[in-house]
Structure formats: C-alpha cells, structure tokens
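Entry type: protein chain
Record version: 2
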Amino acid sequence: MGACTMGTLRVLAFALLMGVSAVAQSPTYGVGRTPTAEEIRAWDISIGPTGEELPPGRGTAKEGAQLYVQKGCAGCHGKTGIEGTAPNLVGKVDPKADTWERGRILPIRSPFATTVWDYINRAMPLNREGTLTADEVYALTAYLLYINDVIPEDAVLDAQSLPKVKMPIGDEYASLPEWKPKTRRLRGYPY
C-alpha cells in the first residue's frame, strides 16, 4: 500500500510540473503591449558611477542647507540630521574614525557620490518623491556631503564634478570583513 501511494505521488507531482510548464508556454491573449523606446527611456532613470546620465544643473551646500529646511527634510531627519525619526544623515562619531564605525549613513557608506544624488532624486521627499528639480537634488547632495566632511562648503556640484567626488568609504565598500563560523557576521550586527 505504501509503495502504491509513493508511486501515485510521484506521478501526480510529475503531472503537476508538466502542467505548470504547459501553462507557462500558453498563447498570449492580447493583454498589454511592447513599450515604446520613449517609454523605456522615461523609465531608465538610474545614475551610474560615471554620472553620464546626470541631468544639467548645479548646487552648493549653502543652497542645500536652505532647501533642507524648506523642503521639510528636517521634519523627518532632524534639524542637524541626527535627531529625527528617519535614518541619520550625519555620522555621530569622529569623521576620522573608521568608515564602518561611523554608522549606516548614506553619504558616508555610499561608494559613489552619484548614488547619493540618485537616491535623493528617486526617493525624497517622502510621499512627494520625484518632485525635486535637478538643481535642488545637486544642492541637497552637496549639503549632505558637506555636513559629513566629504566636500568643502564652497564646492559646486554638477554633472561634471559630482562623479569626481572621492567618497569616505573608498574601495572598502567591496571588501568583506573577516568572518569565522559561529561568530557574528559583522561588528555591531546583532545576528
């Protein structure tokens, strides 16, 4: 009886897998359409490390400091970037400390300054994503990089200068910490 049941289960599992395969190759029903080249270009908004996709514009840390208040960034991240309910924007320890000890701060741990720009452009401000102009994004990026001692206050960021910014993490972003079985995975990581 047990062998018959096992055989039946195997046949049933095989039939189920074959049915799923057949459904996956079923004919189309005229739902949807192929996107146009223009639609694909509109969706292709990611900014790479070289910054060649960056739009025209410019911004400084001083302009960014004003925008930080005007656009409501301080409401979530706090007046100085550390006392809000949203993630911290400034490391709480000495800027000369090891990058990994400074905390999970985007302008510190990001391998490229273009990544900071891209994140602000896509995800901020909360519930009003995509409403910032390119100039505002450059200015806010400059402000965050300035308050984290990455660039000087008078630096002007644009499509040419932003990709050249040397980030604090340097080449460390790709390195893996030393790990041995039955030890915690990362320093300070709770699991």
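Comment: Helices lie at 2-24, 37-43, 61-70, 73-77, 106-109, 113-123, 134-147.
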